[in-house]
Amino acid sequence: MTQPTVPGQTTSPHPLLTARNLAASGIPVLPLRRGKVPFGNCPACTKNACGGRPNMKAPGLCACPHPCHGWAAATTDPHILNSPQWARAWREAAAVAYHPGGAGLTVVDLDSTDAIAWARATLPATRTVPTTRGEHWFYLGTMPSSNAVRPGVDVKSLMQYARWLAPGEGATAPLPDVVRALVVMQPSKPPRAPQSLTAPVPGIQGACPHRTPAYLARGLAMAEQRITQARSEIHATVYRTFLAVLSTHGGCGCLTEAHAARLFTAAQAKGESARHCTDAWTNARTRLGL
């Protein structure tokens, strides 16, 4: 799947117009309130009532039509952007945010003159845009997000939002290894070998309910259906679905390579590349500490 580039003239005095232009360029967007924070969850989703928030193991799975759940609400779907449920948020919006990872981008957020000096001496030249305190540097490619990777430097990509300021200047460079190396991930646990679906799990009385064939089969079928029926945000949907499956079945040895292949096949039928599938699977495992 071709990654979108950072678009050109996309900034308008009205947040909704800016959002429409960005969405048309393939960048998932959401409204921000004053203080650069997302709109709070709607009454139906407040206090984790709906079961799908970014701070849960299955982020973004809520089907709420309102701009709920922070970065997971970001969308490129014009029907959602222009829906009555989003109208009030756009009227009150102070700015537009976007999900860099959902657009195939990573943003290096530099919040001081020292951080900018470090970037100019260390990172490959790329498209940049001034911010209130420093600069945003755009790179093509995704990676885990992390704040304070060094003094004055945040990395914003997957499962994170950034404020849209301007298109910026310069050519957008590929994501370099030096940026990936800024986010030091804890080594993941070695995968458990697939086991019999009826084998007991140590420390659990009786058979693990995840290992019943019907339970696992139903979960995989629902995951495949979710990917197949996605109409927009395919990359984000694939990641969220992988995360949901792994959060339920990944910790007890239920999943085999054949199960993962089924999900990869469904994702590739929607246009995902094999590399994106592998990255999404790896990122979901890392997120869950598997």
Commentary on this structure:
The chain is α+β, with helices and mostly antiparallel strands and 290 residues long. Helix content is 33%, strand content 14%. The protein has 9 helices and 10 strands. It has helices at residues 15-24, 78-81, 84-92, 113-122, 177-180, 213-228, 234-249, 257-269, 274-288, and strands at 29-33, 37-38, 95-98, 105-110, 127-130, 135-140, 146-150, 153-156, 162-163, 173-174. Strands 4, 5, 6, 7, 8 and 10 form a 6-stranded mixed beta sheet that branches. A 4-stranded antiparallel beta sheet has the order 2-1-3-9. The longest helix is centred in the last third of the chain and has 16 residues, at 213-228. The model is unreliable at 53-60 and 185-207 (pLDDT under 50).
Query: Using only CA atoms, what is the Rg?
Result: 20 Å
Taken in chain order, the helices and strands follow as HEEHHEEHEEEEEEHHHHH
Q: Biggest sheet, in brief?
A: 6 strands, mixed
Level of helix content? 25-40%
Average of pLDDT: 79
Instruction: Measure the end-to-end span.
Output: 27 Å
Low-pLDDT runs of 5+ residues are 53-60, 185-207
Helical segment tally? 9
SS-derived structural category: alpha+beta
Shape: globular
Strand content: 5-15%
Q: Report the count of strand segments.
A: 10
